[in-house]
Every structure is written in C-alpha cells, then in structure tokens.
Specification:
Helix content: 25-40%
Strand order of the largest sheet: 1-2-3-4
Strand content: 15-25%
Order of helices and strands: HHEEEE
Shape: rod-shaped
Number of strands: 4
Largest sheet: 4 strands, antiparallel
Distance between the termini: 73 Å
Radius of gyration: 25 Å
C-alpha cells in the first residue's frame, strides 16, 4: 500500500502544472499576436502619425480634407469605423464605413 502524498508534494505538483499551463498559454498568445500582426486589419491601416485623406470625407466642423487616424476598426479585413482627427481644427469624429457617413453623437 502506497503512502498518501503529503500536502507539500501535492502543492509542488499543482505549482508545476500551473507553471506548465502558463507557459503554454503564453506561447499560444505570442503565436496569435504574430499572426494578427500579419493580418490586413493591421497591415492596411493608415499610419496614425501621418496625415490621411479620402476624396469623399471632409471635416464636419471646418470642411478640411486631411485627417489623422488614431483608431481604425476592421473585422476580417473589412473597414467598419475610424476615429478621424481633423489635421486643421483637431476635431475628433467617427466615420462609419458601412453607411459612408459621420457617426453623430446621440
């Protein structure tokens, strides 16, 4: 008949299992992050530090046609929304690509 494992042995085994699972999770997250960095959602977004323009979009406040794009929302490579900051008056507005209009606050 074998002796029951001590509390310390059980705790050490649980700790080893926990560390192993944490390492597996970290490896999975790193792989997912590398894959996401290659997706069109990331590679095709405008550089937030450079001015960007679109022929159909003008600022609601001043009519300017150049923007900075700090946030760009896509789903599977399809543009849905973008936070546009006017390069002239610095107004923040959200452009909705699905309806091709500014998203006005309620």
């Amino acid at each position: 008949m074998e002796d029951e494992p001590t509390f310390e042995e059980l705790r050490a085994k649980a700790q080893a299992t926990w560390l192993e699972r944490c390492a597996e999770r970290e490896a999975r997250l790193k792989k997912m992050s590398l894959e996401y960095d290659k997706s069109p959602d990331v590679t095709m977004r405008p550089d937030p530090s450079q001015e960007w323009s679109h022929p159909d979009i003008t600022c609601l406040s001043c009519g300017g046609a150049k923007f900075y794009v700090p946030q760009w929302v896509t789903i599977n490579g399809v543009k849905t929304k973008a936070l546009l900051v006017c390069a002239f008056c610095k107004t923040n507005n959200v452009w909705d690509w699905t309806i091709h209009k500014w998203e006005l606050p309620l």
